[in-house]
Amino acid sequence: MYMRFARRAEDIKSARAVFQRARKDRWVPWEVYDASVPIKPIKRTFREVDFVLKYLTSINDDNNARALFERVINNLPADRARPLWERWAHYEYQYYRSHSS
């Protein structure tokens, strides 16, 4: 919330400074990266399954969603990748079902 406030009250440079301070914390949660997406895309976040799941459900671009899924899925162990496979299968089913009619 502080990062979003810094962006609204000051500018993007201030918001990035807040993000830089936050990401130095070893235990920074994925939600901090999620809040930073409008500010700057961060590759580290794509290793966090919760972040990727949220991002895949909010993106409205099939090509970018597919590219993200393919990039992330190859870098995760099978046990962590399962929720992504399930979400992607659901997405593909819905996409093809709505476009085949």
From TrEMBL:
Residues forming coiled coils: none
UniProt keyword list: Cytoplasm, mRNA processing, Nucleus, Repeat
TM region positions: none
UniProt KW Repeat keyword: yes
Primary residence: nucleus
Gene Ontology terms: biological process: co-transcriptional mRNA 3'-end processing, cleavage and polyadenylation pathway
Domain (Suppressor of forked): residue spans on this chain: 1-36, 53-95
InterPro entries registered for this protein in UniProt: HAT, Rna14-like, Suf, TPR-like_helical_dom_sf
Keyword Iron recorded: no
Compartments in which it is found: Nucleus; Cytoplasm
Lineage top rank: taxon: Eukaryota
GO cellular component: cytoplasm; nucleus
GO molecular function: mRNA binding
Function: Component of the cleavage factor IA (CFIA) complex, which is involved in the endonucleolytic cleavage during polyadenylation-dependent pre-mRNA 3'-end formation.
Cross-referenced PANTHER family: CLEAVAGE STIMULATION FACTOR SUBUNIT 3 (PTHR19980:SF0), RNA CLEAVAGE STIMULATION FACTOR (PTHR19980)
Protein name: mRNA 3'-end-processing protein RNA14
Organism, as annotated: Pleurotus eryngii (Boletus of the steppes)
